[in-house]
Amino acid sequence: MKPRIAVFSLTSCEGCSLAILELEDQLLEILGAVDIVNFREGMTERSWDIDVAFVDGAVSTPHDEEEIRRIRERCRTLVAIGACACLGGVNTLKHDPARPDYRCVVYGDRADWFPTTRARPLSAVVKVDAELPGCPMVKEEFLELVRCLLNGRQFRLPPNPVCTECKKLGNPCLYERGEFCLGPLTRAGCRAICPSFGSVCEACRGLVDGEALRAGREVFNTQYVVPWEEVVARLRLYGAVCENAEPVAAPAAGGGS
Amino acid sequence: MSARILNRDELLRLIDEAARDRRLIGPVRRGERTFYEAADRAAELDLDGPQCVYSPKAHFFPPEETLLTFERKSRSFVTHPVRHETPTALVAVRPCEIHGIRLLDHVFGAAPADEGYLARRRATFIIALDCFRPCRDEAFCGDLGTNTAHLGFDLMIRRLSDPEEGSRGAERFELTSATEDGASLLSRAGLGRTADRADLDAVRAYERSKASAFPRRLSCEADRLPEVAQRGYTSTVWERTAARCYSCGSCNLVCPTCYCFNLRDEVSLDGKSGARVREWDGCQLREFAVVAGGHNFRAAPAERLRHRVMRKASWIAQRTGLPGCVGCGRCDRACTAKISLVEILNTLAREQDHDHAGHS
Known about the structure:
The structure holds 2 protein chains of 2 kinds. Chain A is an alpha/beta fold. Helix content of chain A is 34%, strand content 9%. In chain A, helix 3 (62-74) links the parallel strand 3 and strand 4. By secondary structure, chain B is α+β, with helices and mostly antiparallel strands. Chain B folds into 2 domains: 3-64 and 80-213, no CATH class; 222-359, no CATH class. In chain B, 36% of the residues lie in helices and 20% in strands. The longest helix of chain B has 20 residues, at 301-320.
């Protein structure tokens, strides 16, 4: 029997769901191998008998939280797709404690009608089986994950930073232009799409790991005039590091809230 | 075959002749930088520019290549090797890069030979371009003697007139061959003239001028490097320096002598066919030394950094008799954490001099 696949969106632009539809050349092949049973961006039918659920968006409202718990109960494998679902994404910018007025700017005097919580990745609320980070997610990586699921092979994200992809592509390094690219800190897999077009990496795929962050702090504190705080601020854009957290601090003891 | 002397116009015609039945690859200018890229005619190449950002390694050993495809047939798999070899003229390869290619030849040529690499290598006609001056501050080829090459190419160009002096019309280039293919092209093309006494004087002046033009950056002699590296095995320099290593592997991937790779299989949606792909790997990457079961033999950045320096300064030379580092300086330039191979080697040499002074 073909695996039953569903795609859901929480707080997000749903661009990652659309990225699935952009796999135009492979779409028929995918549809031959799986049944898509619930996909707001692509069809009207709805089913809740699901093998693999792909979810984009952050958990950012009480409704999102109910929704993701319900999805988790109804599927066997839960895959977070995109920066919002994997890191919280740009939604985490609302955590900036200096700007409590954001909601009022958007919703005016009816802000209370739209309760929000802190924007969190899916993994902060439910168990997640795989993550496909990026803004948007990399559709080729989605395809690779589907291939792995169908063939019973293990899927892994690249364990290396974006620099490896720039070097393989033969890109000139943006640091030579005096720009501060987040590539050395960020997980590869995007084929270095931003540096390839001359823009610095903004870490939408999240940190490659904590070790790179420790190295980054040492590098910026000893080798560059750019303050490390500025680098951290830029890492916050997609939630690669959390607000206020000195990123590599040891986990708080006790775990009480 | 003796040297021939060509002017610039004749040199370009010679390159075009070499590329008559071959694809032409050489330094193409993009802004302030040059890259080894395909060109239609020699006139499009920048023969006067800086060292290319990347070495020509990728031409022989691509960053990613399909080695074979496979498909399921009833109960077994059928494999089909994939070979890519296009006759190519690779032009203006610098001496340090020639030394890098010689090491790759040794590694991929040793049994079991890498037929894909060798096929590409055989299909490539190499025209080297000697360096009159160091190409950039990071280079230390002068210390290692890799700023000059005598074999590993088909033809070698030496620019006998300083490009900054005189007009282009007065330029003289000396062409020598190191292979029969090179000699045959040179005589078939019949360009330029044989070197006369004045040319030989110019060659001697060129060599004298070149010898004094390359500054020494290493504080110890090149032949002491293996010993300096080995004795520095327990130095604190590894921990101190690796504190800022991102483990991004850029130093590996830009290195003309790094040849490590990873293999992965790509399988189709229905699992009935696929491809085996080879991609560049590097010993500075965090998972390079992870083995089945998950153990990482070099989990700490300091261990990885030491491993790279040991290989470049000592182990490769011991195993192959060829330089493990060609002094091109690309690793230092590529490191956004500003970790410098030369600085590490000089630190080790200094520490050992101090130790020695302390004990005597």
